[in-house]
Design brief:
Blueprint lengths: L1 E7 L4 E7 L8 H13 L4 H19 L15 H4 L2
Antiparallel strand pairs: 1-2
Helix pairs in contact: 1-2
Length: 84
């Protein structure tokens, strides 16, 4: 199953696709923190959203089998570890 994240910057609509990872929790806070972090590191807004989407997908995938609470993200995951 696929999923999509929509990003509108006021001028252009961008769609980031990916594989759906079934988890009962929501991850908006982690996603927004990741976007802010990448912006602080000097990424453009588009790049920050793109990098944050990649990061959150990796963190959800890495945490899906922890079986703690409603669904965990492994926030310490290196996004480079997820790139195969």
């Amino acid at each position: 199953m696929k999923c999509a994240m929509y990003f509108y910057d006021g001028k252009e609509l961008n769609i980031f696709g990916g594989r759906r990872i079934c988890q009962p929790a929501r991850y908006g806070c982690t996603l927004s923190s990741a976007i802010a972090t990448f912006l602080a590191q000097g990424s453009s807004l588009y790049e920050a959203v793109e990098q944050a989407k990649e990061y959150i997908s990796c963190a959800i995938e890495a945490g899906k089998n922890l079986r703690i609470g409603q669904g965990m993200v492994l926030c310490g995951i290196s996004r480079f570890r997820c790139l195969r």
